[in-house]
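Quick note —
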Amino acid sequence: MNKKVNIGIVQMSCTEDVDANFQKAVQGIRDAAAKGANIVCLQELFRSLYFCDVEDHKNFLLAEPIPGPSTESLASVAKELGVVIIASLFEKRAHGLYHNTTAVLDADGAYLGKYRKMHIPDDPGYYEKFYFTPGDAATGESIGEAGDKDGYRVFDTKFAKIGVLICWDQWYPEAARITSLMGAEILFYPTAIGWDTNETDPIINEEQYGAWQTVQRGHAVANGVYVVAVNRTGREADQQFWGGSFIANPQGRLLYLAPHEEEVTHVEELDLEKLDFYRTTWPFLRDRRIDSYRPILKRYID
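Predicted structure written out below.
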C-alpha cells in the first residue's frame, strides 16, 4: 500500500465579503489539487474576518448549520477534485448555541463529520467565549468509538487517518495526546492568531510566534505524528495575523514554513510509513506510565 500523502495548505487573508472569501478558499483548494494535493486544510473561520476581536451580536448572523450550505458546496468540490477538505466554520447548533467547528469532507464528497473546538479563549482581541460553546466531552464507553460525535475525534479519510483540533487547542498537550492515541497519523490545526499591532516590544511578538510554533512541534515529537498548522495572514483591526503556517515531521523538523505576510498555497508530501520508524526509534507511547497520570484530572494540585 502506498502510504505517501500530499498535504495542501491554504494560507490567505480575508475581507468583509463572505462570498469572496469562500471563492478564494475554493480557488486555493483547486490550486492545491492541481499541485497534487490529496488532503487540503483551510484556516480557521475562513469565510469571514476574524470577528471575535469584538463582542457584537450581529456577528451571530455569520453562523450556519453543519452540515449546511458550506459543507454542501465543499462536498461538490471535494468530489470533483478527488481531495479531502478540512473546513473550519462558525456553526449554529440551535438558537443561542454556537460552536467553532471544523467539518471534514472525504475525497468522494462524503461528509465524514465535525469536530467542535474544545478549548475556548477569552483574551483581548480574542473574545471567543462570547460566541462559542465548547465541544461536549465524549460520552461513549470507548472514547472515539464509532458513532461518537463528541469530544476529540479522528477521521478515517481515503488517504490517511487524521485528527483535527482548532487554534487554542494548539496549546494543550492533552488534546494532541488523546487525538494521537485514537489513531491519528496527522494532526491538523486550522488557526487564526497574530500580533497585536499596538504592542511596542518586538521581543514579545517574537516570543509569542516562537512559542506557538514550538509547542506544536513538541506535539509532533511527543506523539510521533505529523503536525500541520494552517494560519491566516493579513491585517484585521488591531491584529496582524502572522501567517507562518507550517508542517512538521514526527521529530519536530520543519518540512515547510510559510512566510508571515503572503498568501500561500503549498503542497507537501508526507510518508506515513515512516511513523513506525519514528515511534520505534523513540518509543514514547511504549513507556507511558498510565497508572501514574490520575493527578492530571485535577484542575490544580494543591
